[in-house]
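Researcher: Next entry in the queue.
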Amino acid sequence: MRRCRLPRALARLSILLGVLCACTPARYQNAAHPGFGDTEYKNDLAQCRRENSTVETTQGYDMQSHVVVDEAKATACMSARGWQKTGA
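Model: Structure for this entry, 88 residues:
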């Protein structure tokens, strides 16, 4: 007797779709400037991150520097510029 494999295939498909949907990047739109697109978003994000970053230096055997971004402040900066996450 042959078993039906449809439920197992549907389960695999639903898991795959769930993983793919979780990997899609969030989309943003600017309420103040509806014509703004991805280029303007990336420029504003880079500027907000630059404005809210500091260089930290650690000294030990050798001196190391790295940039730390305050993501909460960068997100607030983006909101102040009119960027909002869309439902799509």
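Model: The mean pLDDT is 83.
Researcher: Noted, moving on.
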